[in-house]
Amino acid sequence: MENRTDLKDIVREKYGEIARRSERASSSCCGPGCGCSGDTIMADSYTALEGYVAEADLGLGCGIPTDGAGIRAGDVVLDLGSGAGNDVFVARRLVGEHGRVIGVDFTPAMVEKAESNRRKLGYENVEFRLGDIEELPVESGSVDVVISNCVLNLVPQKSKAFEQIFRVLKPGGHFSISDIVVSAPLPPALRSVAELYAGCVAGAVERREYIRLIESAGFRTVRIIKEKQITIPEEDLRTLVSPADLEAYYSSGAKIESITVVGEKPQ
User: Fold this and answer.
1) CA Rg, the chain, in Å?
2) Mean pLDDT across the chain, nearest whole number?
3) Which pLDDT value is given to residue 22?
4) Is the pLDDT of residue 53 over 90?
5) Is the pLDDT score of 141 beyond 60?
6) Average pLDDT over residues 168-176
7) Dist. CA 241–CA 169, nearest whole Å
8) Which fold has domain 4-263?
9) Spans of all domains in the chain
10) What is the Cα–Cα distance from 160 to 47, expressed in whole angstroms?
């Protein structure tokens, strides 16, 4: 993974495969390509939420960003990395008939799947756009709430992503983002594994750095409202890295965590 283009190509390819399979990523520990057995170890259950659409849930999240997002009737909500539309459809239930929800994803197959789901449901106040989070195809100051689920860790230029979120939000608007961070730097070998990157782990930054990037973009009252530790089974890691690299990982003390963080754009 030598440059940002390589990283984006890896992510686009892996998530395109998931979209084309049209199934929940139940064979993955942390998203596509991880090669683990059993259910995902990061995703939270959406099944009890109003607005939930099973066909749109590919099991790729690491939280539920709509929880605690303060979405109100009539809001304009933007979902970054919207996939097949899972969080978009939950947010639509919250904004009601007079609100609007926009999903942005840079994988064409995901946008096509999400749009297919939207047409089946007949929703007129939902739209999906093909676009890059680092250059959002969204008007400045047009959004009340930004949400995202286990996506920003995959973005090479995270500072640019948060600057874009700041740009599109209205003054006084806010975000709720579920994402993966680490407590200490991951060993180089783990960061270099493409499957881990596309699976939301190797692209993660340190927790303190993640918050710093958000605050540097101009956000205020930034706080973590939910967190949990993620443990990838050793047998799965052994299929991706050498024994020496695995030992270096354990020795580093780095913990992988799912967090949901919120913040506000000043008035």
Assistant:
1) 17
2) 88
3) 60
4) yes
5) yes
6) 98
7) 41
8) Rossmann fold (3.40.50)
9) 4-263
10) 33
Identify the band that residue 41 occupies on the pLDDT scale cut at 50, 70 and 90. low
Per-residue model confidence (pLDDT) at position 34: 42
Q: What is the pLDDT of residue 23?
A: 52
Cβ-count burial of 250 within 10 angstroms (0-12 exposed, 13-18 middle, 19+ buried)?
Answer: exposed
Q: How far apart are CA 143 and CA 248, in angstroms?
A: 43
User: With a threshold of 0.85, does the pTM exceed it?
Assistant: yes
Tell me which of 23-37, 78-92, 146-160, 224-238 is least confident.
23-37
Cα(173)–Cα(226) distance, integer angstroms? 20
Q: Predicted confidence band at 33 (pLDDT cuts at 50, 70, 90)?
A: very low
Token pair, residue 245, equals 């690299």
Task: Transcribe the chain into DSSP letters.
Answer: --SHHHHHHHHHHHHHHHHHHTS--TT-SSSTT----SS-SSPPP-TTSTT--GGG--S--SS-TTTTS---TT-EEEEET-TTSHHHHHHHHHH-TT-EEEEEES-HHHHHHHHHHHHHHT-SSEEEEE-BTTB-SS-TT-EEEEEEES-GGG-S-HHHHHHHHHHHEEEEEEEEEEEEEESSPPPHHHHT-HHHHHTTSTTPPBHHHHHHHHHHTT-EEEEEEEEEEE---HHHHTTTS-HHHHHHHHHHT--EEEEEEEEE---
Rounded Cα gap, residues 36 and 28, in angstroms: 5
Q: Are 216 and 159 in contact (CB under 8 A)?
A: yes
Is residue 19 within 8 A of residue 115, CB to CB? The reply is no
Do residues 206 and 182 touch, judged by C-beta distance below 8 A? yes
Q: Which residues are bridge partners to 260 per DSSP?
A: 178, 226
